Amino acid sequence: MTSARQGRKPYRLHGALFAGLTALLSAGYAGPPARAAMNDAVVVDWHTGLAIDGYDPVAFYTDGKPVVGNADLELRYADVVWRFSNIGNREAFAAHPDVYMPQFGGYDPLGVARGVAVAGNPNVWLIDGERLFLFYDPARLVAFAADKERLAGTAERKWPAVRRALGE
User: Fold this and answer.
1) Least CB-packed of 17, 53, 109, 136 within 10 Å?
2) How far is CA 21 from CA 2, 3, 99, 112, in A?
């Protein structure tokens, strides 16, 4: 972790996050992803073979929202197929996948902190500390945001064991 990241103040839950969660829930949150392979260090749809349900991992940063990737703009990385919404995003990911890949391979950080792999949902997300986190449901996002420093640290410590359990 860089000194700039270490020096940041703990994340505080505020009105904008609650407003965003309210909007998510009122927009018809459909629940967690229906299918996720639990044998890899990246959440992959069993039927399509796509990472994070085919969403563009770079778009979370550039567009500030989840954007479904295009089948014509795919890239294979870490034995997984990633989709992108435009060529620039695909090139950015290819150049720096470690920057754009979701933390913990797209698994929910609360599950990881508890030592289990729970697939995150690309529609329930947070960028914090320049890292993309995907959550199983909105309640887990709120719980994580309320105690981010402790939970992120615990998840970081337990992630190697969770990866081993996934067959990595």
Assistant:
1) 17
2) 30, 31, 25, 22
Distance CA 22, CA 17 (A): 9
Dig out the tokens for 41 from the structure.
């260090």
Task: State the Cα–Cα distance between residues 75 and 84, nearest whole angstrom.
Answer: 8
Q: Are 19 and 31 in contact (CB under 8 A)?
A: no
Instruction: Tell me the whole-structure pTM to 2 decimals.
Output: 0.77
| SS3 assignment, position 90 | helix
Q: Please write the tens of the pLDDT for every residue from 75-98.
A: 999 889 999 999 999 999 999 999
Which tokens go with 27?
């927009």
CB-based contact 85:74 (threshold 8 Å): no
Q: What pLDDT, in 10s, does the model give residues 98-151?
A: 999 999 999 999 999 999 999 999 999 999 989 999 999 999 999 999 999 999
Angle between helices 138-146 and 148-165 (to 10 degrees): 120
**Token reading at 84:** 């992108």
155: Cβ contacts below 8 Å, ≥ 6 apart: 104, 109, 110, 112, 113
How far does CA 4 lie from the centroid of its chain? 22
